[in-house]
Amino acid sequence: MCCARRFKLSRRRHHCRVCGEVCCARCAPKRLDASTGRSQRTCERCVARGPPRVNLSLARQQPPPSAHSSPLSASASGPSTPSTSPSPFAGGGGGLTPPVADSHGPGGGGGGGGMSHAALLEVYIEDALHRLALCWYGLRAASIGLTLLLLATAFVHAAGWRGRAAVAATAAGLVPLRPFVLRYYRIVWLCAVVSWRVGCASLAVRGRSAAAADALWEMTHRVNARFVYDTVASLGGFWVKLAQATSVSSALPEVYKLELAQLQDAMPADDLPSVHRLLEAELGPEWRSSVKLYDGPPLGSATIAQVHRARLRVVREGGRVEEVEGVVKVQHRHVERSLLIDIGASQIVALLASFAFPHLFQDMRVVVKDLSVLTRAELDFRIEAQSQATARELLAASELGGAVFVPEVFPALATRRVLGMEYVEGENIKEVRRRGASELEVTRIVTALVDAFSLTMHGEIFNCDPHPGNLLVETATGRLAVLDWGQARRLSPAERTAYTRLFMAVAMEDTLLMREACADL
Predict the structure, then answer these.
(1) What would the pLDDT profile of 449-462 be if each residue is shown by its tens digit?
(2) What is the signed CA dihedral for 149, 155, 159, 161, rounded to 10 degrees?
(3) Measured between alpha carbons, how far is 277 from 412 in angstroms, rounded to an integer?
(4) What 3-state DSSP class applies to 331?
(5) CA atoms of 192 and 66, how far apart (whole Å)
(6) Domains in the chain, ordered, with CATH?
(7) Please, which residues have CB within 8 angstroms of residue 283's CB and are 6 or more apart in sequence?
(8) Is the pTM of this model over 0.70?
């Protein structure tokens, strides 16, 4: 983007009518175009670059129309030469002549046509989101005003001091509930907007051609997907986890999956004083004797916790004290309270969504149910420590011990909201291909990964969160490290058999076997 400013409600996005870049109103102000006499938004870079270059080869192919030819005949005869009207750049004017041929032609070198189309699409989405934001702020203000008006009316008409005391107590009780009420209100607003836009699109496509209907649905889903992403990212908590799980659903349109997949990236982290307070609450006032945090931002921040690199003081067998390089996983503040609230709300949303739009959210109720169980367990890091220790022993005792490992956890630093473990110096598994690794190395890593998950699925513990962010290739040894065992399950023999049959059915494309395996699950 041409502009580095953060766009918000008071600073909207605009696109330059020349290059198509997205800017704010200050970077792309309206300037008078001397050739047309109209104002158009032009960024500072296009003004400084000077007049657009003209493709002279195209200009020579077709002579300019004669003075006696009509505009219709001139346009029908082929491309004409660019206008020779004075450029506003020559006299330092504020206007700008749009580029021709090179930047907007089918074979132009600059590719400006595609860039302008993408910019126009982005502006359309931003305008729609801007209108939705205005409606949201208006509804929220109206709801707060109506609540205050009702409380004031009840207080005035209350009988005696006891009635007024009851109204005052009710108002005081609503104050701490305000964040939760607004959170539920926002979820209801999200469902209402998506339902309304889908319903309007269903009515608008009637009587239109197939191409027009597809385009209308495409724009509706693009706006809805961006709106869902913005709302979920601001809500955080369980809704991010639900969006991450839903983004891999084959029932959703592709545009929703692309938007929601961005939530796999890092989430906002808590400040360092908050981390220090939580460490003191979990490990005691002398926590600095066991944990020495490194300066700088955290290594990563997810939905429930963030990870800081630290120097850890651990006690080995026999009472031997050792300092090791490690990491400390610290739970976000207030995340447990918001997650438990969101789980209840998400179950209601899943029920309504599957009832109203079964073709889009037919499996959402199952996803919410399974994810809520895993999320409740993920809030207790002591359960994660036990699962990680079990997986580490399982892999170390197998023939895969030299190819795959799980970082060591330190029981003395494992509490309900804090978890200390071994630090792994390595690269994300996605970076292996990007750095130009050989096919032999890639095959070795992928084979080790498949064998490791096969072993854990038929062993005592199974990792239910195997996304690339939890897979590292150790720099020193080239071994594969499997991280984050917060979402882990112990499968029963019947479940292992059913999952095995399901994988075989998918590989063989056997729908009957797939249906039987899903029924067993």
Answers:
(1) 999 988 888 877 88
(2) 180
(3) 18
(4) strand
(5) 60
(6) 1-62+85-110 (3.30.40.10), 118-264 (no CATH), 272-333+380-490 (1.10.510.10)
(7) 290, 291, 413, 415, 418
(8) no
